[in-house]
Each structure stands twice: as C-alpha cells, then as structure tokens.
Amino acid sequence: MDPTSSVSGDPVRLTWCVLALLLTQLALACLGVDAQAASPRWVFMAIQVVTLFAVFRRYRQEPAPIAPIWLLLAAAVGMQWIWAATNMLATLIHSEGSFLTNLAVVFSGLYMIPCMFLIARSFDRGEPAAVALVDLALPLIVAALLCTLIFSAMPGGPAATPGSIMLIIDHADAIDFSLAVMAGLRMLGTRSLHKRFFYYAATVFLGINAIAATIYNRVELHGLPPWTGVMIGLAYVALVIVLARPVPPLLRSYRPARRMVQTVTSFAPVVLSLGVLLLAVSVSRFNYPLGMAAAGTSVVLYALRVAIIQSRHQDLQRAAQLSNQRLQQQVGRDPLTGIANRAMLIPRLQAVYAQGAPYGSTCSLLMIDVDHFKLFNDNQGHLAGDVCLTRVAHVLANHPLPPDSLVVRFGGEEFAIVLPHTPPEAAHLVAERLLDAVERLRIPHTHSETGWLTVSIGAAAQHCAEGDPTSLIEAADRALYRAKSAGRNRCEADPTAPSTPACDVS
Q1: How far apart, in whole angstroms, are the C-alpha atoms of residue 308 and residue 233?
Q2: Which residue in 79, 332, 380, 410 could disulfide with 111, CB within 3.0 to 4.6 Å?
C-alpha cells in the first residue's frame, strides 16, 4: 500500500467507530460516572481493540520489509490493553491495592519494550542478527528493573515510602517522553517514506500518551475524576485517525540528509542504554546487586553492539576493497587470452621507470607479432584464430621471465612484454627463447615459411632515468617492423639502442 494515497472503506469505518466510543466516554463523564467504574473501562478497552484493528490493517497492507515494525506498535497497544484488562479484573473482583493492581502497573510499563525496540532498531535487512538480540536484551533489562522497582516501591512492597510512588511516576514520565522524542527523531532521520509514516504515527501516539499519562498518574494520587477516562483514550483515537488519513504533504516532501540519517540511527541505541543506566541507579536503592548488575550489563551490551557493527563495517570494507581489486583486474585483463590488456602497458612502464630511475636501471620492451595471422584466419577461420592467440598468450605468460615482467595483449595478433631491470642483451636472450617456444607449439600454418605458426619480435631498451614509455614503445615497434621486413620468425633490436646481433631460429 502506498502511504501517500488516500484511504477509504475500513479505515473510515474504524474512525467513526472509535469516535463514537470516545463520545460514549465523554457522555459517561458528563453523567458523572466514576472513571474507575466498569462501564468507562469497558469503553476504553473497546477503543484499544479498534486501535489494534487499525494497526493490524496497516500491517497487512505495508510492503514486506516494512510490515514487521507495525507489529511492534501493535504489541505496545496490546500491552496497554492488558493493563486495562487487569485493572478491569481488579475492579470486578474488588481487589484494588492488591498484587493484581501492582501487576496492572507493571503491564502499563511493559508497553515500552516494543517501543524501545522499534526506536533502537535500524531495521536494516543487512544488519547482523546479533545486533537485534542486543537491542532486544536492553528493553528486557528495563522491564526486569521496572518490575523490581514497582513491586519494591508500591504500597505493600518492602521499600514502600510516602515518596516511592512519585519515584515510579517520575520514571514512567521520563520513559514516556523519551520514547515520544526518540520516535520523532527517527521520523526526521528516516529516508524511507513508509518508515517515516510509521514513526510519524508512533510519535503522535506516544506523544499524546505521554502527556495523558503524566496528568493521569498525578491526578490518580488524589482520586480519578470522570474526565480522566476520556483523556487516556485520546492517544488511541489519534492513532486511528492518523492511520485513516493520507500522509501529510510536508511529511511526504521531507527528505533528510544522509548524515542526519546516520546520526539519528547511531544515537537511538545510546539513549536506550542511558535509560537502562538511570533506571538501574534507582533500583540499586532497593536492590543494589541487581541495579549494579543491570548497569554493568547495559554498558557491556552497548559496547558489544558497537563492536559487532564495527566488525561488520570492516568486513564490508574489506569485501569492497577485494571487489574493487577484482574489478580492476577484470578491467585490466584481455577477455580472450586472460593476460593483461593494452590499458595496463603504459601504467606499468611508468611504474618501472619511476622505480628504476634512482638506480640507473634499464627497462626493455619486446613487441611480438604473430606472422601472417590474417592469412591464418582466412584459411582456418576466426575461431581457430582465437584458439591460436590464446595458446600463444599462454606460452608468453608462462615462459620464465625476469621478476616483475608483464605480458600484454597489445591488440589483434600483437603482444608486448615489459622486462624491468633488463639490459638489451638479456632481452634478446628472452626473445630468442620465446621464438623457439612458439614454434614448438607446432600449430600448422600453410602460409608460413616453416609450415608452423611463428612470431616476429622487436626489442628496445632505455635507461629509466633518460627515456619515457611512449618513446620505448615506438622504438620496439620500429624494431618489430625491421624483424618482419627481414623475413619474420626473428627478433630485431631498435637501431638506436646499443648494437646487438639479431637472433633467428629459421
């Protein structure tokens, strides 16, 4: 479902239904019905049920990657419904002020577990599962601390004092408003429109709920007037209305910067850990070992979360570097023969010249051309020609060469070999062996003087401190032309280089 589209049908009916229930609450309040009586509580629970229907409807219509986060909001509403149901049960059996009442207070606070989880999580499908477990562990620790605080400080508890209930209320208010603020930050720091709409709905619900709970909890200390039942239902009514309407234009047009998205995503778990620490400090007043254990655990879990994410980023960075290296290798490779392509020649020569210049070393270059290759292609076909070039490239690449040499397919049937730190005499010896190695392939060639496929080689050499790659290539190319003009199946040296006898294996 597109969250930007208009809505009709079921959402509208749900809206009218929840408004009718709210008006019923208002009518009961005007009639002076006690907010703690059964009838207002039944109406309030009905409002919560309608809200659950609205949230589940949105869950069914959202795309698969986004849908699960709506279940977290449904879980928060469900926890509040359990709180209301527990209060209703306490009213029906006349057990206010008992264990059941304290349990209701616990359920009223447990709604924060799914809320904390939906705020802390980035919902990145590539995020490690261990991070999700850490994000879930922190709200569970908060729940354990809250239960301990409630059962210790509520009337009848071992640490109950005149101010203990206010301590619980203050903690509840801090948690409620923190959740609302963080949901708003997640809304502003989310690039996905579907997620942004979700956090918008969560912000409206949590914000109104935080304000209503702050008033409700303090008024409750002196007895609940009838209008408080209407007040605590407002957050649920607002959520249903939000889900029944299209996304506001401002929210639809808003686009957060990438840096803001990263900052908010990283900041949310910090707030969760700080919440655990603050609650642990309060609990340590009643149960010191538990409070300190929870505080230490929260620090360790947050450090573990950071370590897992950092390790994942390092793995991704290494994978990206490896992928980049492979891509560079593929870009620099000739697809037919598998050896380096022409684009690798100049950079390699430049590197050799730069390394050899301080030491006065010499770089040699062999230019190799397959003799009468066009006639070979015309006589035996292009597929046979490709096989021929591949076999020649294999011989050149696997022949013993000086260290750091590079064999390149220069183009067509022409190859080049860079011989670093190699004087002209040694280059000629290498060329002579290559002439013999190619002929030993015994590839039949009817237009060759020997009856077998042969190559011609031009050799050139320069001092790294005096020459340049382009002039070296031109010199080797001139030498290759001399070898072909002199009868092929031979190597010739660049005439500008020191004289070296020609080699001929014919």
Answers
A1: 41
A2: 79
